[in-house]
Every structure is written in C-alpha cells, then in structure tokens.
User: What shape does this take?
Amino acid sequence: MFVRSAVTALVALSSVTGLAAAPAVPSTASVPSNGKAFSFGVIGDIPYGAAEIAKFPARIQDINADTDLKFVAHVGDIKNGSSVCSDEYFQHVRTEFDSFEHPLVFTPGDNEWVDCHRTNNGAYNPLERLDKLREVFFNQPGKTLGETMSVKSQERLGLPENVRFTQNRVAFSVVNVQGSNNSLQPWTGLGETAATPRQLAEVGHRTAADLEQIRATFSDAARRNDRAVVLMTQADMFDPTLLDAAQANPETVSGFREIVQAVIDETNRFDGPVYLINGDSHVYAENRPLAAGSPWLAVYGQDAAADQLQRITVDGSANATNYVKFSVAPNSSKDGEVLTWEKVPFSG
Assistant: This one.
C-alpha cells in the first residue's frame, strides 16, 4: 500500500446554517463492470462546525471532479457532537448530498442520532432521530444518493442504510455500527443513567441485522469466488485513544464484541484479503488490528487472530482536509494487493 501525505490547510469560513415494505431485490446487486481497474472515494466525519459546513460544497465539487471514481462512501458523522440535530440541518445535508455526481453510499454516524440526547444537541430521543435520518436520507431503499446505483438493502428488517453490492469481483458491505459503544452509552441528556429497554432493543435488532449482512456478504463472496471483501462502518472499533480504557474494562467496547467475533470468523474462512474502512476517530490510520499479537484480541476475548484483515480509518473533523481514494486492481491482476489507496487533498 502507499499513502500520499495530505496537504494541511487552515480554513476560516462563514457559517451556514416508518418504513413500508419494499419489493424483493436480487440476492446481489452488482455495479456494471468490464473487469478493468476502478477507484472509489471515502470521506467521514464531515462537515464539522460552521466553517466546514460552508466549505462542504467545494469539497463535494473536488470529489465530483475526480472522474476516476465509480462511487463515493461517507462513513458517518455529518455534524459535530455539540450542535443541534435538527430536521432543518438534516435536510440541508441531504441537499448537499444530492449534488454528488457519483453514486453516494452513506451510513449514519453517532453524532446525528445516538448522541442527540445531549442538551446542546437538542435533547432529542435518539430513536426518533434515527427514524428521521432514515426518512430524509434513505427514502429510496435500494438506491444510492447522488447518481443512482442499485444496491441490496436491508429495508425488510427496517435498516435501509445497510447495503451491499459487488464490482469486479470485490464485495462491498456497509453496516450501521455506531460509536458510543454501538449506542449502549446512557442517554444522560434525557436523565437516563443506564441504557433503556427501548435502547437495548434497538441495539439488539440492529446488531443482529449487521451480523446477518456480514455473514451473507462473505457467503456470497465465497460462492462467487470474489477476490476481496470490503466492510465499511462508522464506528472505530479499534480506536487507539480508547485502548487503555478498553484493556482496563472491556465493557467499554462491549457493543462491538459480536461484530468483531463475526469479522474474525468470516475473515478466516474467506480465501482472500478483507478490508475494513471506518471513520469515527478522526485520525487517518492503516493497520491490522486483529493480527496475531494485537492487544485488541484480548480486549474482545478472542483466541484466534485475523491476519488478513486490513483496517483503514479516514481523516475527519479538523483533519478532514482530504478524501481517501481507493484503487482496485483489474480482474486479471495476479500480483499485489487487490486494493491500494492514497489521501487526496482538497483544493482549499
């Protein structure tokens, strides 16, 4: 893999301020491919705060100008953690998302629903905000935002944001896994000191759906003889800033335990590389967090390592001065990695 250093830029900008059943979709959704190499872009934790909100249209235009990209993914957090989770803001971002000229895959982040119980976020019920996000951003299940691309959605389970698709024998799977311990942290802004029954029910249902999609992604990839699997989540389940706390008390990351177990199991059964792309922790990283010797294995109570899992965290928040461009080798390629990547600086 290779990385091109991002160009650091200081920015000072002005501020801007129910699901119905769907018809069945095929077991896989495939982007048309002729076997040639292709690229895709990933951003996350953007826009953060008034200055970046004002800059976001220019960021989108920079990405639109990259005609190599087949699609773009936003891995969650469309606002910072101290601003109001209003309907108006959600609609504003949806309007910006509609200006993407590539297909846009979006998975929600904790800042736009899980943490909306906070007083400075408006003291919303997070479950109500999740419903609103689905209404605003996932009103056409099975279709991307931006330019339309067909994807397989979990709308039948009430999770239209969970999608998967394939291109050039690479399986992509985007699942709603949240920061804030996968939404198990108490809603203190609403006066709660422990997870509520409705909160626990949502986490249980969503995690079960995530597990179903992860397993189906690998099963279908193996059946098709795919070359690689790419998983995308908002949550950084291996956030280095949380490692000391997680080692002292693994319950601080307990909401990720079943997901990590499934990723290990499926990675070790799959005959090919597996890539996990996430946001959440705001600092670019590339590593193998579940390889032999990793402290995260003990945190998650795992005896088996997953050496084939490569993780990439995209820059976010104040570091969101670039997008990560992933290049997928042509189908005929025999040597090297299936994916390589570089950071591409925004123009301003």
